[in-house]
Amino acid sequence: MDWLADAARDLAEAAPRWNFIWLYDEKSAGKILSGIWMTIQLSVACLILSVVIGLAGAWAQGSPSRIVRAIVQGYIQFFRNTPPFVQLLFFYFALGQFTPTWSPDGWLEIPIISNVGWAIISLSFFAGAFNVEIFRAGIEAVPESTREASESLGFTRSQTFRYIVMPLAIRVSLPALNNNLVNLVKTTTQAFGIAVPELLYQSVTIWNDHPSAQYPTMLLLFVVYIVLVGILVAGMNRWERQMRIPGYGA
Questions:
Q1: Quick check: is 11 in a domain?
Q2: CATH number reported for the structural domain that contains residue 238 in this entry
Q3: For residues 80 and 128, what is the distance between their CA atoms, to the nearest angstrom?
Q4: 10 assigned to some structural domain
Q5: At 147, is the secondary structure helix, strand, or coil?
Q6: Number of domains, the chain
Q7: CA 204 – CA 210 distance, rounded (Å)
Q8: DSSP secondary-structure letter at 245?
Q9: Percent share of the chain, pLDDT over 90
Q10: DSSP-assigned letters across all residues of 190-204
Q11: What is the pLDDT of residues 85-138, one digit of tens each?
């Protein structure tokens, strides 16, 4: 790949505004790779946790307890009606003050939840609130006669939800879930605000040190997110086709 590094150097000399420094500078290349890896880890963790929250919340919405239903509804309204960036700052700076710490050397106090942990928690709860409503709509789309049939066969409410209702509801929910998860991946860039070293954060550190690398690095950001979102959409679309049942889903 020496020819590519040489070409990038020649381009930087000929057109200073297009300095692809991460193609020939090891330090910058390392920042980009670590940023991409952190973005992938952050996205995967948030995707999984938000789906789990959505399923649990949709289940709790059907609880016979009014208190449980009110708690879930309050959670949904709080996270849907406030900006995700404000939520992120609130979790990190406000709740983070009450986080227990541990000291590896007896002097330095390290919070047990890092900035990466708070980013995962905050963004997952944000997307999870939308997932609850997505799964709720899917559950309501399952005919009542289907639930009655399962109960007549001796299924408990938990068994009916797990084996009958939820598998059908997921099929109905997949198109909307796809959109929400795509938005979640793009929202992970807001972790930049609490210094999570994801791709945007690392990119900013590069063009702060090398202003001539700003345009190429911004272009790289677009390309990386297009690829990541494209992979997610392709996977979700394939999953949707495999799970499709006549009479259910889009």
A1: no
A2: 1.10.3720.10
A3: 10
A4: no
A5: helix
A6: 1
A7: 10
A8: B
A9: 50
A10: GGGGGT--SHHHHHH
A11: 999 999 999 888 888 777 776 667 778 888 999 999 999 999 999 999 999 988
In a domain, 5, yes or no: no
Structure tokens at 13: 């000399």
β partners of residue 248: 245
Residue 70, CB half-sphere, CA atoms under 13 Å: how many? Answer: 3
Dist CA 138 CA 6 (whole Å): 55
Could you report the per-residue pLDDT of 133-156, keeping only the tens digit for each? 999 988 888 888 888 888 888 888
Distance CA 155, CA 160 (A): 6
Residue with tokens 């959109």: 179
E strands present in 69-173: 101-102, 110-111
Q: Residue 165 is part of which domain span?
A: 30-243
248 domain-assigned: no
Q: Tell me, what DSSP letter sits at residue 246?
A: T
Which pTM was predicted?
0.88
Residue 166: phi and psi, rounded to 5, are -65, -45
